[in-house]
Every structure is written in C-alpha cells, then in structure tokens.
C-alpha cells in the first residue's frame, strides 16, 4: 500500500463542516457540547480529543475578492484543520507504552486498546493536536481513517468534502499537485497563497499539507514546529552531570566527615 | 458611573440630564471606537473579529495544556528525595558512616518506592493499564526511561531496606549481606538518574517554558531532590551529621544559582517563572530551597551545637517545603506557558499602546 497524505486547500473550503460531521459519524466520536466561543463564527476552537477535523473560520478585515465577499463585508477564509501526521512525530516518540505507532500508510495512529492515559503525548505535540479525554482517560486524535484506508477507501472527511478542498492521495503526487495549485493561484493574482510546509524543521514534513492565503500564523500554524526529542540530548547530558555532581558530592561529604571523626 | 453587581437597582427611574448624557456618551464611544467595553461586557475583537499575524487565530492557544493532575508534582518531589536518599545511604555505607544514617536513608528511599508508583498510577487515565508501560522500552521516550528507572530503583531500594532490616533484627548471614549489598548497589545506580530524570521528562516537551530550560532542569530538580532528602534525614535526627551539612549546603548553593540564572535571563518564554501566580510559586519555592537554607546553614556553622542543630532543622524544613513548592511551580508555569499562543507562533508581545487600549476599557 502506498504512503498517503491529506492536502487541504483552504481556497476551496466553503466552511460547510461536512468533514467534521463525517469524521464524527464514521469514527463515532462524542459531541463536544453546544458552547459559543463568542468571538467568531467558529464555535469549536481547535482540534482535540472529541474533534479530529476542525474548520477554522479565519475572518479578515474587508478585502475585495478575499473569500469571495462583497467589498464592504468581512472577508472570510476557511480551513479544515486535522492532525498533521508528522514524519517525526512528537507524540509517537514520547509514548511510553508503544500505543502510538506509524501505520503502513505513513499516518500516526493511537491504538486505543494499549493507551493507558499517561498524557505525555499531550505535552509532546508541537501542533497541540492530541488530547486526553477526561471522561475516558485515554488520549485521542485523528486516526487518518486507518480502518477505511485498510479497506482501500479514502478517509471519511475527504470523501464527504463537496468542493474537494480536502484532497487525499499518494503523498509524492499530492506534493506535486500542491505546488501546481499554488502556482495556479499565483497566476490568478492570489500572490499570498502559500503551501504550509514544515519539512525544514525537526518535524521533517507532515502527512497533512495545507494551502492557505496570507500568513499561516493566522490559521494557528506554527512557523517552526519542533519535535521535543531534539531537547532530550541536552536534558540527558544535564541529567548525567547532575548525577555526577550528586555522586561526587556525596563521596566528598562522607569522606571528609570520616576524616574529621578519625575513623 | 458603573453600577456594581450587588447594587440595588430600583424598578423605575426618572430620566434626567445626567442619565441622558451618559447614554449619549456610550453612543459616542461606539461611533468613535467601534466597540464599547464595560465590566462583564467585552466584545473581544469586535466589531470585526479578525485573525491576523498579530493576533494569531483569535489568540486561541496552539498548544494543549498538560493534562497531569496533582499527583505528578508530588511524584516529582517524592522521586527526587527518594533517589537522592538512596545515593546518600549507599555512599554513607561504603565510607563507613553511622549505621543509623545508612538505615534511615534506605527507609526514605524505600518509602519513596512505595509512594511513587501509587501516585503515577493514580494520574493515569486508565490506571488498570499501568503495566502497559512495561511492554516496551523506548530510549527516545523520557517517560519510558523513567518508568524503567523507577522499576530498577524499586527493586534495589526495597531489597536493601528489607535485607538491612533483617540483618539488624535476626543477625547477619552471607545471603542477607549479599542481598543487602546488591540491592544497595542497584539502588545507587538507578537512584542517580531517578533523582533528576523528571527534569528531562518535562524538559523534552513542546511546552516552551520547559524546553527552554531543558539543559538546566535536571540539575535544578536534582539539587531540589537532594535538598529534600538531606532535610528529611536531618529532621529524622541526623542534624549533627557533617556530611549532611555539606550536602545540604551544596544543594542550597545550587538552588540559589538556579534562581539567579532564571532571574537574570530575559527571554519572553521564561515569564511564567517570574510573573503572575505561577511566578510567585516558582519564586517562593526558589527562595525556600536556595537562599533561606543557605543562610541558615552558614549561620549554623558558626554556632554552638545546640543552636546549630536548631538552625539546621529550620533549614531542613525550608528545603523540604521549597522542593515540593518548586515542583508545583514548574508544572503550573507549564500550564501558563501552553496557554501563551504568541510563543509557538513567534508573535511579539503587544506594544505599550495596545496594552493601554486594553486597560482603558
């Protein structure tokens, strides 16, 4: 089976939330309450343990043509967010039980029958995706529809997307398509269209790519996500130094004590 | 002119010049600024909610906050003290120090071995699955390395304490001495990393305030654990041990340096260690672990035995409480840091102008 990826093109997204609904229905994810954020039409906020796809409503000050609105109205862009399925995944490296694995499709999958809810993956995700479900106790995130992919089907969100804003396919060909699409948008005058790319960081690229207009930071996409494993060498070196200091200190302290008491 | 929540509001009011003027002023403010703010009424970003490189995604946090509960900082404290106590006990035994000191240190380590897994298991979302931690060993996961360190340490420390107890009670035999010495060596070898690996555990994460200190946290937590172990031993009646005084002074000195290091650095990401409630906890823990016991120990060295013992007990109490507060403070700072959406998006903090605009509402 080939290695797959998502390409989410926000310039095609109409904010219908079909992906969210399809994801919840297929994966049987619990509802997350009727709460209002109060500052945006986005009342979900972020991906989490009960939201594996999340449509961001990025509202800009009026800008003609941006989001297709009238010139005096707020400009809207939508973007369907999802677990990035990092090439070097912080959650996977951190997981002490081996519950989080890399699948044959390149995705990062949490085996629910192994996860013991230690929550170390939660603080190890540079994209703030995986979360512990307080009621259940285990950590959950997008499965990359591992079950559907095994059956040779596309993930539920990609299948339900009416505008093909969510594209799914073999990763290398999707990368080519992404580049072509950005070039096409530039040719149409959307000079601010960019492909969000984290392959230059320690994350080493993702299996969820995003085409957005403007600064990716307004979509809560970090400019420099890093896998926490890169801090481990420094930390273990300090740990070894601390251990040496403790051992040396104890030896010196007790030897000097013995000399004084003349034993 | 604001009417407080608890003020009695009469059912009817007679309009007067002042009331109408106030309504006109509200309207004018709306016209001028596009929004009106008041107590309990704050239309964030109104009238046009915008997402931009300056505001991120409505200022929603990118990172998730740690999901750990109260057991984890307590475990950091217990583990740090137990690991250091095992090292103290083993070295005391090898150098021929008083048997009672060796025994007490071993019991502290053994007590930590009993408490630590309980705390860890309580924090798990699925406590019945604690053993899943033992189905793999992953060197790249500090949590996995830590759990296996705890396992090795548990075996060594409990064997040393039990065998030592049996030897004291029923007399020595070759088998008992073998178990005691082997257990003690294992407890020493695993106790060294166990005393400070929790610094690696939180240092190698995506939380900015933690990973910014990845190179210092293990030494900081190690010194904190040593201060606590020395403190507990002194309170257990070893306030005359010169070796413990040296170790306690060393730990307090290291903690004072750590405090100075944090206070002298100015990165924005370190603010949770200095500002707000989390800053208050970290600073309190720092003072009680560093300068306070350091000063008390310095003075105690110049005093007679009676006053000296008293001062050292004060220093011991300060170090033990300081160590616990330090762990709570660092976890709390991690929560504050995760909520700061600016750091991972590399967005500079607002300038003074927007600050004054916020506070004027």
Based on the model shown, name its key terms.
heterodimer; A: 263 residues; alpha+beta; two-stranded antiparallel ribbon; 6 helices; B: 361 residues; mainly alpha; elongated; disordered C terminus
Description:
The complex is a heterodimer of chains A (263) and B (361). Chain A has 263 residues and is of the alpha+beta class. In chain A, 27% of the residues lie in helices and 18% in strands. Chain A is built from six helices and ten strands, in the order βαββαββββααβαββα. In chain A, the strands form four sheets. A four-stranded mixed β-sheet of chain A has the order 8-1-10-9. The longest helix of chain A has 30 residues, at 232-261. Chain A is elongated. The termini of chain A are far apart. With 361 residues, chain B is mostly helical. Chain B is 68% helix and 0% strand. Chain B contains 14 helices and no strands. Chain B has helices at residues 17-33, 71-94, 99-123, 142-170, 174-194, 197-203, 208-211, 217-238, 242-264, 276-289, 291-301, 305-339, 342-345, 352-360. In chain B, helix 2 (71-94) packs across helix 12 (305-339). The model of chain B is unreliable at 352-361 (pLDDT under 50). At the A-B interface, strand 2, helix 2, strand 6 and helix 6 of A face helix 2, helix 4, helix 6, helix 8 and helix 9 of B.
Helix percentage range of chain B:
55-70%
The N- to C-terminal Cα distance of chain A equals 73 Å
- Order of H and E elements of chain B: HHHHHHHHHHHHHH
Query: How would you sum up the global shape of chain B?
Result: elongated
Oligomer: heterodimer
Shape of chain A: elongated
Q: Could you say which structural class the secondary elements and strand pairing of chain A correspond to?
A: alpha+beta
């Amino acid at each position: 089976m080939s290695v797959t990826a998502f390409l989410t093109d926000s310039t095609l997204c109409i904010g219908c939330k079909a992906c969210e609904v399809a994801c919840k229905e297929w994966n049987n994810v619990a509802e997350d309450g009727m709460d209002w954020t109060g500052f945006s039409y986005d009342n979900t906020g972020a991906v989490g343990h009960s939201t594996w796809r999340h449509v961001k409503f990025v509202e800009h000050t009026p800008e003609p043509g941006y989001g297709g609105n009238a010139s005096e109205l707020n400009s809207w862009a939508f973007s369907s967010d999802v677990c990035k399925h990092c090439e070097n995944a912080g959650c996977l490296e951190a997981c002490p039980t081996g519950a989080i694995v890399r699948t044959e499709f390149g995705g990062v999958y949490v085996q629910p029958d192994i996860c013991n809810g230690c929550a170390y993956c939660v603080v190890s995700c540079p994209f703030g995706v995986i979360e512990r479900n307080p009621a259940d106790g285990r950590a959950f995130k997008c499965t990359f529809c591992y079950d559907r992919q095994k059956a040779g089907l596309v993930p539920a969100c990609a299948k339900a997307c009416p505008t093909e804003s969510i594209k799914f396919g073999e990763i290398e060909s999707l990368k080519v398509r992404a580049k072509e699409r950005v070039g096409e948008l530039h040719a149409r005058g959307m000079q601010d269209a960019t492909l969000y790319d984290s392959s230059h960081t320690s994350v080493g690229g993702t299996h969820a790519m995003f085409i957005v207009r403007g600064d990716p930071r307004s979509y809560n996409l970090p400019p420099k996500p890093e896998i926490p494993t890169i801090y481990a060498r420094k930390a273990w070196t300090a740990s070894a130094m601390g251990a040496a200091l403790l051992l040396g200190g104890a030896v010196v302290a007790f030897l000097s004590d013995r000399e004084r008491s003349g034993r | 002119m604001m009417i407080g929540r608890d003020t009695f509001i009469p059912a009817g009011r007679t309009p007067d010049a002042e009331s109408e003027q106030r309504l006109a002023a509200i309207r004018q403010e709306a016209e001028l600024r596009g929004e009106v703010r008041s107590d309990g009424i704050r239309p964030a970003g109104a009238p046009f909610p915008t997402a931009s490189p300056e505001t991120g995604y409505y200022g929603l946090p990118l990172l998730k906050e740690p999901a750990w509960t109260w057991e984890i900082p307590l475990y950091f404290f217990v583990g740090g003290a137990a690991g250091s106590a095992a090292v103290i006990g083993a070295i005391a035994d090898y150098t021929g120090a008083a048997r009672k000191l060796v025994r007490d240190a071993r019991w502290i380590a053994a007590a930590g071995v009993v408490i630590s897994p309980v705390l860890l298991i309580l924090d798990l979302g699925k406590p019945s699955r604690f053993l899943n931690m033992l189905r793999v060993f992953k060197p790249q996961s500090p949590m996995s390395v830590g759990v296996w360190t705890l396992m090795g340490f548990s075996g060594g420390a409990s064997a040393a304490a039990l065998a030592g107890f049996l030897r004291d009670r029923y007399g020595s035999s070759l088998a008992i001495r073998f178990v005691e010495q082997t257990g003690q060596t294992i407890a020493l070898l695993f106790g060294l990393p166990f005393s400070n690996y929790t610094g690696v555990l939180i240092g190698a994460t995506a939380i900015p305030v933690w990973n910014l200190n990845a190179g210092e946290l293990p030494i900081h937590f190690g010194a904190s654990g040593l201060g606590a172990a020395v403190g507990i031993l002194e309170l257990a009646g070893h306030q005359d041990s010169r070796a413990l005084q040296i170790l306690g002074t060393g730990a307090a000195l290291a903690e004072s340096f750590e405090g100075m290091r944090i206070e002298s650095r100015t990165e924005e990401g370190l603010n949770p260690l200095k500002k707000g409630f989390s800053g208050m906890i970290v600073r309190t823990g720092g003072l009680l672990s560093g300068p306070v016991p350091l000063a008390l120990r310095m003075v105690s060295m110049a005093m007679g035995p009676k006053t000296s013992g008293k001062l050292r007990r004060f220093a011991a109490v300060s170090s033990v409480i300081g160590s616990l507060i330090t762990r709570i403070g660092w976890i709390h700072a991690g929560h504050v840091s995760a909520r700061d959406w600016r750091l991972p998006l590399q967005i500079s903090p607002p300038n003074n102008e927007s600050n004054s605009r916020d506070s004027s509402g």
